[in-house]
Write a structure and sequence with these properties.
The complex is a heterodimer of chains A (about 60) and B (about 150). With about 60 residues, chain A is an all-alpha fold. Chain A is about 60% helix and about 0% strand. Chain B has helices spanning about 15-45, 50-75, 85-115, 120-150. The chains are: A mainly alpha (about 60), B mainly alpha (about 150).
């Protein structure tokens, strides 16, 4: 699933590791989510959205 | 997933946890396949002793039985049974499928007997079919009860 996680993470000047630590996953998981190779659970989506201060729509809705 | 006793063995990271669960399920199916093939070929070739074959058969029954029992009591089979009407429909269908299964079972057993692949008496075939029919009905009934209870709580 394509998404805007990388874009908004970089806007917030966060590294993959920092985002990973703040939501309790590994850096690899963040990398896989950003590259669209792993579809996170809703709980994880919400956790990411909260840290990046964005809505789920901003991050995940219909990214071509 | 959180209600499983195996949770404490899994990593906290979601991706890792998902992958490991897949690996465990894959290994489970491989394990089942190896057991089935060993028991099957041993029937014809007799490469291992009867005692070991029995142990393998028990292992096979244990692992597949565990999954079946967990499935039955989890209430996830009858996902569309939400009221009494659905329940009665499912009950009727359950008995119909039970009879269908029994007929197929008799047919296959008779076929194997005619081909001399099994040496059961006709009386044994009828007895085993009746037993299997009862077990299938009981398993489905429990599954239906638990599914209905679970759906009612939603």
């Amino acid at each position: 699933m394509n998404n805007h996680v990388k874009k908004y993470r970089m806007d917030q000047h966060l590294t993959q590791s920092e985002l990973a630590v703040s939501i309790g996953v590994t850096r690899q998981t963040i990398g896989l989510i950003e590259s669209g190779k792993y579809n996170p659970s809703l709980n994880l989506c919400i956790a990411i959205a909260k840290v990046l201060n964005k809505t789920l729509d901003d991050l995940f809705w219909e990214v071509s | 997933m959180e209600k499983s006793w195996v949770t404490f063995l899994l990593p906290k990271d979601e991706y890792k946890k998902t992958r490991i669960l897949y690996f465990i399920v894959e290994s489970f199916f491989l394990f089942i396949a190896v057991l089935v093939l060993t028991v099957f070929f041993n029937h014809f070739i007799g490469i291992i002793s009867k005692d070991i074959a029995l142990v393998l058969l028990i292992a096979l029954m244990s692992v597949s039985g565990y999954v079946l029992i967990r499935y039955i009591f989890s209430g996830i089979e009858y996902v569309n049974v939400f009221d009494k009407t659905d329940y009665r429909k499912a009950l009727k269908k359950m008995f119909f499928n039970g009879f269908k299964f029994a007929i197929i079972f008799v047919f296959v057993s008779s076929f194997l007997k005619v081909l001399d692949m099994i040496n059961f008496d006709w009386f044994d075939i009828v007895g085993v079919t009746f037993l299997v029919f009862i077990v299938v009905i009981i398993m489905n009934y429990i599954s239906l009860r638990f599914s209905f209870k679970k759906n009612m709580e939603l």
